[in-house]
């Protein structure tokens, strides 16, 4: 197993293009300064020891040394011991609606952002449970395979937006099916949490929920939005330019379909909670999920890592020493090597 303990140091590599641009400008400035004294061909004859390629070679060596140092700072590590560990928990899949109707602002700042904030807070309280994320609109996609890496889960959660799924709609049945299959061959307790406004555009969601429940997977639903509905905002970049309208020019109102979500939860042996302006209800659902008996899960993982940064420091020093032995003027002994010269 190989990993980097401090990956944020890799941002320093973004300085290399900046250094390269600075080097190019320096070489151009140097040449222009020399040409002030005469034609470039004449100047080269006056300074025969001047080398065009040596400064570039020294710069490349410095950049290689810098890159090696960055890798050393990131602290590469290799797993040295693999052991079996046991934990208690359940497998939890979130199905998050990312259709345009989730941009409605009846729940501030909007339905989607409020749902993401609640999931993020819930992840902070997880311990021993595995989590996965499905996003869906007209189709369902796996955003995060089931994992115990909560830091990765929050990172993937932050990238979710309404543009992540190209097909519009609300395919809840597809999301339930994909979430159930994402558990794999897991035999321990599993639950699916669907967060949506409930405007389903498929007719098979109730049959799908009932079939999944028979496999021992509980389905919980959270209704995002208010029954009276709200307009769907339109954006040009980050600027709101109005609201979505139908062909007749009337503003489209997106309303919460509580009846459907209640039926899904009932058939899925779960519960339904409607989000309000003060809370999404995710904590209430997780409290109910917490009553599910947590099964013991055995898995293999690396428990000990050894640092390998020393190799990259040595490599960096090697390039720096090599740079010291490369002079900017031409090398005399190389000038004497002329393999294509014909002696008479």
Compile the SSE list and pairings.
Elements: E1 2-4, H1 15-35, H2 40-46, H3 53-73, E2 76-89, E3 91-97, H4 111-124, E4 130-136, E5 140-147, H5 150-158, H6 172-182, E6 190-196, H7 205-213, E7 217-223, E8 230-231, E9 233-236, E10 239-243, E11 253-254, H8 258-267, E12 272-274, H9 282-290, E13 295-307, H10 309-324, H11 332-335
Parallel strand pairs: 3-4, 3-6, 6-7, 7-12
Antiparallel strand pairs: 1-2, 2-13, 4-5, 8-11, 9-10
Helix pairs in contact: 3-10, 4-5, 6-7, 7-8
Pick out its properties.
single chain, 344 residues, alpha/beta, six-stranded mixed beta sheet, 11 helices
What's the domain count? Answer: 2
Number of strands: 13
The CATH topology annotation of the largest domain reads as Rossmann fold
The SSE string, one letter per element, is EHHHEEHEEHHEHEEEEEHEHEHH
Secondary structure tally, helices:
11
- What's the main sheet like? 6 strands, mixed
- Give the uncertain stretches in residue-range form: none
Global Rg: 31 Å
Can you tell me the CATH architecture of the largest domain?
3-Layer(aba) Sandwich
For the record, give the distance between the C-alpha atoms at the N and C termini, rounded to a whole number. Answer: 64 Å
> What's the multimeric state?
single chain
Task: Determine the mean pLDDT.
Answer: 82
The helical percent reads: 25-40%
Shape: elongated
User: According to CATH, what is the class of the largest domain?
Assistant: Alpha Beta
Instruction: State the secondary-structure class.
Output: alpha/beta
Strand order of the largest sheet: 5-4-3-6-7-12
Strand residue content = 15-25%
- CATH homology superfamily name of the largest domain: von Willebrand factor, type A domain
